[in-house]
Design a protein that fits this description.
With 98 residues, this protein is mostly helical. The protein has a single domain, classed as Orthogonal Bundle (Non-ribosomal Peptide Synthetase Peptidyl Carrier Protein, Chain A), CATH 1.10.1200. A two-stranded antiparallel ribbon has the order 1-2. Helix 1 packs across helix 2 and helix 1 crosses helix 4. The longest helix has 21 residues. The protein is globular and about 35 Å long.
Length: 98
Amino acid sequence: MSKVQGTQDTFVSDLIEMLRDLTSDWDTDFAGELSGTTRLIADLAFESVDVVHLMVAIQERYGRPDVPFEDLLMVDGRYVTDLRVEQIAAFLAEHIER
C-alpha cells in the first residue's frame, strides 16, 4: 500500500468517526454503514450548514485552519452537489501531512 493510499484510508476512518459524532442524534433514513462511498447530502441528508460544521471539525481535529476547502466545495465556480467520504479523504491526503 502506498503512503498516499494509507493516508487516505486513515482519513476515511477519521471522517467516519467525525460523521458518527455529527449525526449521532439525527433522525435520518440512512440505514447503511458509513463508508468511503457514503454521500453527505444524498445519504446523510446534510444541509449546507452541516457541511460547514464538518469542515470546522476537520480543521479542529488536524489543527489546520488553512485547508483550502473552497477547492473541494467548488468546481468551475459552482458548488458541488454532493461529496463522498472518499473524495474528502483524498482531498485531505493532498492537503494535510500526517
